[in-house]
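Subject: Chitin-binding type-3 domain-containing protein structure
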Amino acid sequence: MKKGLVALILGFAVPAMSLATEIWDESTVYTAGSLVSHHGNTFVASHRNHGNAPEVNDFVWDGWLYTTKDTIDSYDHETAYRVGNIIDFKGHVYVAQWPIKGEYPHHASSSWRQLVNVDLTPAASPITDTDPNENPKSLETVRGLDNDGDGIRDSYKQAVLTQYDNPVFVQMALSISHEYDDLYRIVLDETIAISPKEAAQKLNSITAFEACTKHLFREGIIQDSPLTLFANTIYRALYYRLGTNRLFARTNDDLDALQTFDPPCPASLSKDMND
């Protein structure tokens, strides 16, 4: 699916948690943090998924994180972690959102993303998105409310659960929100350091997802894209655009760093949504 693959390089000096790798099975329901092997490669489940075959890529939204190891290392406070590093901390699995050292993983951390299984039960009533008295340009207002602490804006989650029926696509749409949220951080926090390689990785992950959703829209399989649901205010749409522009600038405006995707969607998703 991807022409240039960048492995998620994990540290080797840190003790590893005891978690066995099993062969991926189409009939098994996997939860966040599950380790599987498929066609000789190792993957960590980024969220609950069923029947979605792992593919070697750098994406965080398709349900699997490709790794070069068959264990998950325990967090070490002295280790400098790179974007995509996967660690265990007190029984929870996290992936590094940014280059980070000396910050303990936590579900509310801006540098670590906890891999959690999202509750797919729609809310009974519409969710209030933000406080109307807050500054509409602030990071807090743009990011919106996340009352359950799963890292996904509550109103976006409700919109996704209402809009889409396919459970695999629902999980992907929820997972890509972490990448979209990162764009807001890039715009509003100048201290975030990201290398050209890491910027290209994030930009290509977003581009790949949007290529897939455009394909599904053209085929009449979905009526609205997740991006439309996510960037649903002027400032959210503006910061999305500024964030993608800033990522591209951090690649040193390298057009060769951008990739094309054929087919546009993971094979298992295309088959599942067309059945």
